[in-house]
Amino acid sequence: MGKQRRANGEGSIAQIRDGRWRARLRYEDPITGFSDRAELHGRTRADALDKLNALKARLGRGESGRPQRASLREFLEYWLTNVAKPSLRHSTYRLYSSIVTHHVLSTRLANVQLLRLTAAMIQHVIVGGGATATPRTRELALVILRRALSQAVQMRLIGSNPTVGVSRPRVERKEMQVLTPAQVRTLLVAATADRLHALYWLAIHTGLRQGELLGLQWDDLDLRTGTLQVVRQLDQHTMTLEPTKSRTSRRAIPLGAGTLEVLRAHRERMEAEGHLGASVFCTPHGDALRASNLTRRSFKPLLRRAGLPNVRFHDLRHTAATLMLAAGTHPKIVSERLGHATVTIAMDIYQHALPSLQREAAEDVERLLSEGRTNGGQFGGQRPDKAVDRNEETPPKSLFDGVLDGSGCWTRTSDPLINSQLLYQLS
After folding, report:
1. Is 322 inside any structural domain?
2. pLDDT tens profile 152-211
3. Are 20 and 43 in contact (CB under 8 A)?
4. Structure pTM?
5. 97, 121, 279, 342: which has the fewest C-beta neighbours closer than 10 Å?
6. Cα 347 from Cα 335, distance rounded (Å)
7. What was the pLDDT predicted at 403?
8. 141: burial class by Cβ within 10 Å (0-12, 13-18, 19+)?
9. Higher pLDDT, residue 238 or 371
10. What are phi and psi of 411, to 5 degrees?
């Protein structure tokens, strides 16, 4: 009688020279879809058979066939290539890849099997005494590792995420540098003759990120309606345009009359240079602006000429937010103009500007209550000195005109047509 062939996926068991029993199984990994072969050993045939049956059960549940052998290095390399790269922006992927390569895979954790990873290991090597990176880098490494291992849990490679029990390192947040209204006036005056004057004006008056400014296209600007659409940014690694950071980063920003005048003058300048192409801001040769060149050749020399502090270009965004809050703009509106995911981000970052708003709120409540007493208990009446003749309104050229030029007095009121807050000049 001929030898009966085994069915596909059945596996084999045989005794090897050292007396142990070996079970082998060829299978298709349900996670990667690749063909693989497992080799399991036991002291007895029954031990090897138990391990073989356990492997078949895992495969039947859609789990990986080799979680015991998969190391953290193998999984992170797989995760970066197949999960992170297709789903993240180029710049974010480069950050993730760099952090993983230099601060996770370069450590003793790299060759630890996924199932053997513990919170204590990660706490020591990534966050605690075994780590050599800066606190901020350690924090990033932990955040990225947590995200990657969450994917491992979803793929059923591990039962739970070991980073859940790891405490983040304490990171000292650097106090941001913002320019005062007087310093902003000095900066804008000094930049008047600069071919990129409009770029600095927009940075101050809109709070756009540097990449958003450098990726701005003329099609994104409607100088007739006074609206700027933020839909893309310039990737400094590839020097190509890519979508903005998130859904909330894509936004429409109303522009003041002063900003429109500056942009029209800039358009005329670009037309005279022969560079009235797609990009609003470009080099004298018409090429895309590199952030490093902008900082080194234009922004830093401008600060030195104006005698201003050596702030970063990104601090212009912080300055814009601080000015808006100082002008009485609601934090929700500030958050929307900056493209933050939630208003809490703006309130957390710019809490240094909020105490004055707290004082104003307290004074407003006291004034309202005192008005109620003087008006016979009728609250909400408009004070005579707050009355505004709509026929004599003169809207500000800029959101910060009352702040930057030191003149005029502005009040904030609701506009029923756009269901938002607008500034009006008091008579």
Report:
1. no
2. 999 888 889 999 989 999 988 777 788 999 999 999 999 999 999 999 999 999 999 999
3. yes
4. 0.65
5. 342
6. 8
7. 53
8. buried
9. 238
10. -125, 150
235: helix, strand or coil = strand
Residue 250: domain span: 181-313
Domain count, the chain: 3
Cα–Cα distance measured from residue 308 to residue 112, given in angstroms and rounded to the nearest whole number? 52
* CB-based contact 63:157 (threshold 8 Å): yes
Highest mean pLDDT of the ranges 4-8, 29-33, 161-165:
161-165
Across the range 340-354, mean pLDDT stands at 72
Pair (224, 267) in one structural domain: yes
For residues 317 and 205, give the distance between their C-alpha atoms in angstroms, rounded to a whole number. Answer: 9
Name the nearest CA neighbour of 157 among 126, 117, 125. Answer: 117
Are 126 and 185 found together in one domain?
no
Looking at the fold, whether 121 and 88 belong to one and the same domain comes out as yes
Q: In 3-state terms, what secondary structure has residue 231?
A: coil
Q: Which helix (H) or strand (E) holds 26?
A: strand 21-28
Residue 425 has pLDDT above 70, yes or no: no
395 falls within a domain: no
Of residues 130 and 164, more confidence is placed in: 164
Kindly state whether residues 56 and 77 are assigned to the same domain.
no
According to the model, what pLDDT value does residue 253 have?
Answer: 95
Burial 13-39 (b: 16+ CB within 10 A, else e): beeeeeeebbbebebeebbeeeeeebe
The token pair at 310 is 């050596």
Identify the band that residue 370 occupies on the pLDDT scale cut at 50, 70 and 90. Answer: confident
Q: How far are the Cα atoms of 14, 156, 206, 402 from residue 259, in angstroms, in the given order?
A: 81, 54, 10, 15
Listed in sequence order, the residues at least 6 apart from 394 whose beta carbon sits closer than 8 Å to its beta carbon are 425
**Helix, strand, coil fractions of the chain, as percent rounded to 5:** 50, 15, 40
The pLDDT assigned to 398 comes to 54
Q: Residue 77's domain is classified under what CATH number?
A: 1.10.150.130
294, 313, 332 - which closes a domain: 313
* pLDDT at residue 64 in the model: 66
Tokens in use for 212?
A: 């958003």
